[in-house]
Design goal:
It comes from Mesobaculum littorinae. This is Capsule polysaccharide biosynthesis protein. The chain is α/β, with parallel strands linked by helices. It has 2 domains: 112 residues, no CATH class; 174 residues, 3-Layer(aba) Sandwich (Rossmann fold), CATH 3.40.50.2000. The protein is 38% helix and 17% strand. The chain contains 13 helices and 12 strands. The strands form 2 sheets. It has a 6-stranded mixed beta sheet, with helices on both faces. β7, α7 and β8 form a beta-alpha-beta unit. The longest helix is centred in the middle third of the chain and has 15 residues. The N and C termini lie close together (11 Å).
């Protein structure tokens, strides 16, 4: 028995309203792609109850960043920068196909990669001129839950800071608080405590880009700041699992000491990597073939129509 031709797309209220009004490009491309195959497409308010109900309703479901927990559901997420998107069978980015894929720089044309990165950098970071000299410090963009050691992390963020201070000699370490995180009093106290006994550590509340452009390296759990750092040829040490790990020094694989040693000397081809990661492995919502890419992706993941 075939699945009814109904697609429900689950968004928060703001994104749902934009999609319904035709003011969200990727949603427009999804709707056009499925309507061409005689689907009814509905934009639904994303709640726990609505997602649970989707398992009992006819048709298919696309969740925005949430776990696709039943066989007729997939998840979609921006691949960090517009207009690049992914449709996946897991909400965990370290389980995505690109995370498991092998990156071969020899397969990427260097001139095409350089042009792509130059244009993408100008679009994403218009105030930045490009790669800049190292400024003699290590940049640690923090995320949330600083005292917790979560399943995808090698250790807690606070422990990560301690290891970074131990591994970076006399260089200053500048830890940036995430502007959208609401840190509790215990997390802030833990930061103050480690800063009080480590004068090389400063806690930064300013914008990300100046810190990123002038650092020697980025150290993080799995913040997208490390991926942004690739646009400025900044090596990354990752203490957590993520999808853009291929050219980073990964603590989970190497251990702390080896990861920092590798990061100090490695010179990956950042341009070819960004071309591969963003252009070759995503759905480009701005491309003429976006609708065909969308249909091919959901069919590859088992949707039959």
């Amino acid at each position: 028995m075939s699945t009814p031709r109904k697609l429900r797309i689950f968004y928060d209220a703001h994104l749902r309203d934009r999609a319904r009004a035709g003011r969200h490009n990727f949603s427009n491309r999804i709707r056009a792609a499925f309507e061409r195959h005689r689907f009814e497409v509905e934009f639904v308010l994303n709640t726990d109850a609505a997602r649970l109900q989707s398992a009992a309703e006819p048709g298919y479901a696309l969740f925005h960043m949430d776990d696709p927990f039943h066989p007729r559901a997939l998840t979609m997420r921006l691949a960090y920068y517009f207009p690049f998107w992914r449709i996946e069978a897991s909400a965990k980015r370290w389980e995505w196909d690109v995370a498991k894929a092998r990156f071969d720089p020899r397969a990427i044309d260097p001139e095409a990669a350089a042009l792509f990165v130059r244009r993408a950098r100008n679009r994403q970071f218009p105030e930045a001129a490009g790669p800049s000299p190292a400024g003699g410090y290590v940049y640690v963009p923090l995320q949330g839950r600083l005292r917790d050691h979560r399943s995808f992390q090698s250790m807690s963020p606070i422990e990560m800071l301690g290891e970074t201070l131990a591994a970076t000699g006399s260089r200053p370490v500048r830890a940036g608080l995430h502007p959208k995180e609401d840190y509790d009093a215990e997390d802030l106290a833990a930061l103050d405590q480690i800063a009080a006994v480590n004068p090389r550590l400063s806690i930064e509340r300013g914008p990300m880009l100046p810190l990123l452009q002038n650092c020697d390296m980025v150290v993080t759990q799995n913040s997208s700041v490390a991926l942004s750092g690739y646009f400025f040829e900044k090596p990354a040490v990752l203490f957590g699992l993520i999808d853009f790990h291929h050219i980073a020094a990964n603590v989970a694989d190497l251990g702390v000491a080896e990861a920092f040693q590798r990061a100090a000397s490695m010179r990956p081809d950042y341009a070819r990597y960004l071309y591969w990661f963003l252009k070759e492995t995503t759905i480009n919502a701005g491309d003429d073939t976006a609708e065909a890419q969308i249909i091919a992706e959901v069919r590859r993941r088992g949707w039959v129509f």
